[in-house]
Amino acid sequence: MKTIGPGSTIGMLGGGQLGRMMAMAAAQLGYKTHVYCPEIDNPAEQVSDQATHGKYEDMSALKKFASAVDVVTYEFENIPVSTVEALSEKVAVFPNSKVLQISQDRLSEKTFLNELGIKTAPFSAVSNVDEAASVLEEISYPAVLKTRRFGYDGKGQAIVKSVNDLEQAWQTLSSDQIIIEGFIDFDMEISVIAVRGQDGEVRCFTPVENRHKNHILDISIAPARISDALKEKAIIQATKIINNIDYVGVLTVEFFVSQNDPKLRVNEIAPRVHNSGHWTIEACPSSQFEQHIRAICGLPLGGTSFIGEARMTNLIGEDILKLPELLKDGNLNVHHYGKSEVRAGRKLGHVTKISVK
Ligand SMILES: Nc1ncnc2c1ncn2[C@@H]1O[C@H](COP(=O)(O)OP(=O)(O)O)[C@@H](O)[C@H]1O
Ligand SMILES: [Mg+2]
């Protein structure tokens, strides 16, 4: 285990709001942050010590970045695996590139989960519309077509209710790397934010309930309103996943919860801190961001208990204009990500309300 002490510099790939909140947690523990991302105007850089603007394929800029930092991490999962591998030759990178390889492709992700004995939606990879039609006879309708790579916030997805929808769905996705998933008629979506230290210790926050609007996370409620037995089961599955990839840092596991068996299916994993974990900033002794910094720096992990029920609401697009009104509620924890452009569907901030037990 390599401990990197306060005063050291954490290199961070990506400059979004997750990076911003991670840099703030790093600063609280006495670390500096050096952001690496292509965008000049980005939320993370505003609260970091240094920034390099470069493409993720620019090996000479990456080499210089590696020599300027003590450890590297990332705040989004579409970093090329080759970038992480090249950096790993010069400096420790957490989490490792193996998890990127698995999670960047929905096919390898679901195959990996099933091999661990963890249930997912039924799925099959297809590369043309005829293949899709025959797979759909097996999986049956309704089903969800997803691009295998680069999907987020519901982008790169189409629901097909019958064979008549197929041609149109195929056209809109315009890719020949598609995965078809059976549609899960779930009661609830939950996620588990897990952290694993360099010594292999794993801790999980209590499962959180997630509600989406227009395929974008709208509200998270912690703890999720499910039985203790199901919470325990979700935590066991998340722990199994994080242990199996020799992971260091925070990993998020999204589940569908159904009344009938299997009650839990994993939808996807995210090798990073997550929007559904923002409530931990105010509700827990150590937030998901701080846990991640502790793990990658080889520090002891922090506490995951919570002081009461938490409700986090995203401020998306014009929601951010409600900020003056929201600020009048002195019990609301308000977060603005410092993004200058208000665009529909863009995550611009969030608020959290804690009801102390
Ligand atoms: N197989 C499915 N059955 C039912 N709903 C689904 C299925 N797959 C995705 N969804 C819905 O779409 C949302 C986004 O899908 P997800 O696979 O998590 O992609 P993203 O990468 O965009 O988060 C999920 O949170 C869920 O609400
Ligand atoms: Mg998702």
Description:
It is a single chain. With 357 residues, the protein is an alpha+beta fold. Helices cover 29% and strands 29% of the residues. It folds into 3 domains: 9-93, Rossmann fold (3-Layer(aba) Sandwich), CATH 3.40.50.20; 122-182, 2-Layer Sandwich (Dna Ligase, domain 1), CATH 3.30.1490.20; 188-356, D-amino Acid Aminotransferase, Chain A, domain 1 (2-Layer Sandwich). The protein has 11 helices and 17 strands. Strands 9, 10, 11, 12, 13, 14, 15, 16 and 17 form a 9-stranded antiparallel β-sheet that branches. The protein has a 4-stranded parallel β-sheet with strand order 3-2-1-4, with helices on both faces.
- How far apart the termini lie comes to 37 Å
What is the rounded Rg?
20 Å
Task: State the major sheet.
Answer: 9 strands, antiparallel
The geometry reads as globular
Low-confidence stretches: none
Summed over residues and divided by their number, the pLDDT gives a mean of 97
CATH class of the largest domain: Alpha Beta
CATH architecture of the largest domain: 2-Layer Sandwich
| N-to-C order of helices and strands | EHEEHEHHHEHEEHEEEEEHEEHHEHEE
Helix content: 25-40%
Task: Find the CATH topology of the largest domain.
Answer: D-amino Acid Aminotransferase, Chain A, domain 1
Q: What hetero molecules are bound to the protein chains?
A: adenosine-5'-diphosphate, magnesium ion
Count of helices? 11
Global structural class: alpha+beta
